[in-house]
Amino acid sequence: MVYVNADERRAMRKSWLTGGRLLERRWQLAAAALMAVVLLVSSGARAAVILAGDANSSTLSNCVGTPASTCGSGGTVTSLGLSSFTLDIITPFSFSVSANTTAEPLAQLELITGNNPSGTATFHYNLILNFTTPSGNFSDTIPLSMSSTGTGTNSSETLSGFPSTLSGFPSLPGVTVSNFAFVTAGGTAGSNTFSGGNWTATRGSVGPGATAFLDLVADVAAAAPAVPEPGSLALLGTALAGLCAAVGRRRRSVSLNVKTILE
User: Fold this and answer.
1) Does residue 119 register a pLDDT over 90?
2) Whole-number Å distance between alpha carbons of 44 and 42
3) How far is 110 from 17, CA to CA, in rounded Å?
4) Confidence band for 125, pLDDT divided at 50, 70 and 90
């Protein structure tokens, strides 16, 4: 039998207790690190871009005017003369969304005022939206049949034919795009209004060259996150349970050793 004096017993007891505390602390730090990794991965996924894209491929085409001089071009263009007014597709125009958003601008048109417009015209607005999601790239073409009417008495131009919603819009994996709407977006023209599918810009006192903008907006939301697989939850639970069990065994071992020393 090995005999130890009181000082040696105290030193051994202190050593065992210190070692047990250090080991327990290490297990606690390991568990905290594991949880931090899980939270970091989750937050990183939430911060990722859920939808990006542009309307840069959109065009105006097939303009037919009465009189014929009303249309500045009958070809496929991004800037169309309508009597003394000019209709432009704003390019480049891009968007990027990393969180649920309402009224996100997807495309923009500009009317530049002229002087005493007159005549009517019909034309096509070929709206092309290109999308990038975490699942891949997608594109949708939305042909809109439009008409315009110039009113020289108050120097205004009205564009008609804008839909209240975009029908046939495809579903995008992992993201929902909804509540499409055309809304005015400022400018320097005396008046810029949109109602019932009709967009009217009035020169006002600003004079020729004033601007009016119209945006296509939509709500963007990420799809509901997938429920973790039972196997993944079980693995995480097993790991944490193992850490707790190891800490408990070590603490019991330290208590028994200390008790033996003191006896």
Assistant:
1) yes
2) 5
3) 77
4) very high
Count H helices and E strands in the chain, helices first. 2, 13
Q: Is the peptide bond before 134 cis (omega within 30 degrees of 0)?
A: no
| pLDDT tens-digit series, residues 173-186 | 999 999 999 999 99
Burial class (CB in 10 A: 0-12, 13-18, 19+), 44: exposed
Six token digits for residue 25: 């602390």
Instruction: For residue 123, give both structure tokens.
Output: 């034309």
Number of Cβ within a 10 Å radius of residue 173? 10
Q: Which residue has the higher pLDDT, 62 or 256?
A: 62
Pull the structure tokens for residue 150.
């110039």
The closest alpha carbon to 109, from 131, 83, 87, belongs to: 87
pLDDT tens string 92-104 = 999 999 999 999 9
Q: How far, in Å, are 109, 121, 251, 261 from residue 19 at the CA level?
A: 72, 88, 10, 15
Residue that is written with structure tokens 């495809």 in the block: 170
Helices (H), the chain: 6-47, 230-262
Beta strands in the chain (DSSP E): 51-54, 59-66, 79-82, 85-89, 94-97, 101-112, 120-133, 136-151, 156-160, 175-187, 191-195, 198-202, 211-222
* Separation of alpha carbons 15 and 4, rounded Å: 15
